[in-house]
Amino acid sequence: MSCNGSQVKNMDNRVSVDGYGSMWSLSLASRSLRVIALAAALALTACGGGSGGGDDDGGNPPPPDTGEIAATVVDQFDAPINGVTITAGSRTATTGSAGTATVTQVPTGSVSVTASADGLADPPAQTVTVTEGETANVAFTMQRVTEGTGGISGAGQEGGTSGGSSFTFRVRVYVIDQDFNPVPGLTASAFSLADCTPVSESPEHPDCVRHSNPAGDAPYTVANATPADFQLVDPPGPVPYAAGLLFDSSESIGESDPTDARIFATKEFLNDVGSGNVVMLAAFADGADSLLPEPPLTYFPCQPCTPEFFDNGNSLFASLDALATLDGGGTPLYDSLEEMVGTADTAPANLRHTAVLFSDGKDIYCAEPPGSFQFCTDRRGDVVTLADQLDVDIFTIGLSNEVDSLAMAELALRNGGAFMFAERPTQLISIFGVLDLLLSDSLPSYEMVWTVNAAPNTFIVGRAMIGRVTVDTGAGTFSLPLAVQIEQP
What we know:
alpha+beta, four-stranded antiparallel β-sheet, Rossmann fold
């Protein structure tokens, strides 16, 4: 008997059903009966018989025919995007650093394919025809989502202190919208400074007041509900500049910026570098897990890896794309910044010399012994002193609330730079979008004065007041960390 090619054969003491192998039995009579029953059942099953066919007999249907979909995802600069989820029916895959992903075991036929990731606008879905055993290709260009944010500059003590119980300071605040434009027309009521109570679990990272003793943090209250002496300050620029871009390339960057918004954002800046300005690119990471060609600090292009300023920012695009694949190791922040500041003498003498530090974390040598609170405070002082000697303005860009805001603020605000802050990667694009204006001293800011009060002997020389200015633009709200040195009146 046969059905669709199945054969049942009687061979003396053995029965063979093609496709099912052979069996033995103990007696000829029972063997004959069992063979007949088995052959009938097998033939019925093979022909789709039984209890109505399909899945009603409790069996599993054969797996559907499948193929796969190879997806490529790029941004507006045609650069690959990491961390994008590609979905085809119930199957998914995630792009790697090359911006590619393969979705496997996709049922044949027409399927809708989508791409999604935090910080990126979802592009329209695409319909793809999947053929058994073959690969269908699909490509997406995704637009970056941007958010407004800002930064702090010009933070300094205003007058003297009153018995160490009162501290007044002046500060400038930059406010940027999602289209990389300064936000005009804000009033004093758009800005607020919160009272501060220490809550940090680590005394090495104080919340309110930095003492020489890491355990000496202290609370304060804000005397004025809105800032005093409030005014919009028009910048004096443009001033031509030499910018040394220094990027944190440690392992944590892959987590805080999974879709490489910093790379895209930097291209936005490099597109705006005008005639008369020059830029340098370097990255830092240390330890056995560092992926840089020359850790702890690598200059790009790395052929060879030597510090060099370029007057064409777009010439660094390829190096930036390579940098997106090099996250690994720890963060030697102060050593790297100190070396970058030292390269200022290789830039044209008639330019404003600047170092732009981007990081999402803390210096690796301050996290545990032999690092210490005072050691790291001293290292920041060393870098600022060198920058003063070489006439280099330090600008810092911090990403995420895990960044050492105190360190980033002190590095920038103690020598004429600015501390720009992005809580999320989507805010980095706005920051880098105005970086040309910032470095050329052409970005407007809001100047204001605040007074804070605390217990006697809190605000004494050598300490620093730490806080956050919150900005409400009407379109959104964000907060900006700051640190102000307490100096001799």
